[in-house]
Amino acid sequence: MTLTANDLARVRLATPDDEPELIELVRRMHADPEWGLRDARGLPFPFCADKARIAIRRATQRDRSWIGIVGVAGSVEGSVCLARQTLALSDGQMLTEVWNWVRPEHRDGRTNDVLVSFSLALADMLGLSLVLATMTRERVAKARAYEKRIGRPAASLFLYTANSQLRAVA
């Protein structure tokens, strides 16, 4: 699927007015049972609204971050947050996905595809490589959508949680 003019019209950049709804959206994402990051006890890491607020404000101020939203204010279907980062051992830059989450009631539509297309278009516009990941314990539609659009994964991620056998592979 390519990003059409109609699809592009569905994505808007987040503004400071979107902050309260985005905080609730990422809180809900964090509580989603498919979200795979877990602590050593196998429990989801605690949600930190202050850190979410900082990430959202950076993006709404276009400080090396952007949030693409599908949906109108008060009725957001999903969003993607992308950050321009430098590599750990290089001055090279890349665009990384901080989150891409679609509300469950909108997962059967094109919302995720539109957000992925937005991510690819931003990477092309900035001339940067894009790192996308899906953190889940099961292979889900999002991972299949990434593979369909981008190709085979370039890497595997293994998560070992101390004192348990829980593993997440993305």
Condensed summary:
34% of the residues lie in helices and 21% in strands.
Question: Could you walk me through the main structural features you see in this protein, from its secondary elements to its overall organization?
Answer:
With 170 residues, this protein is an alpha+beta fold. The chain has a single domain, classed as Aminopeptidase (3-Layer(aba) Sandwich), CATH 3.40.630. It contains five helices and five strands; from the N terminus they run H-E-H-H-E-E-E-H-E-H. It has helices spanning 5-10, 19-31, 49-60, 111-126, 141-150; strands spanning 11-13, 65-72, 75-86, 93-102, 129-131. The chain has a five-stranded mixed β-sheet, sandwiched between helices. Helix 2 crosses helix 3 (49-60). It is globular and about 50 Å long.
Helix content: 25-40%
Strand content: 15-25%
Number of helices: 5
Rounded Rg = 16 Å
Q: Which regions have little confidence, pLDDT < 50, spanning 5+ residues?
A: none
Q: Averaged pLDDT, please?
A: 84
CATH class categorisation: Alpha Beta
CATH architecture: 3-Layer(aba) Sandwich
The main sheet orders its strands as 1-2-3-4-5
The span between the termini is 22 Å
Corresponding CATH superfamily: Gcn5-related N-acetyltransferase (GNAT)
The largest β sheet comes out as: 5 strands, mixed
What does the overall shape look like? globular
How many strand segments? 5
CATH fold topology: Aminopeptidase
What is the string of SSEs from the N terminus onward?
A: HEHHEEEHEH
Give me the secondary-structure category. alpha+beta
Structural domain tally: 1
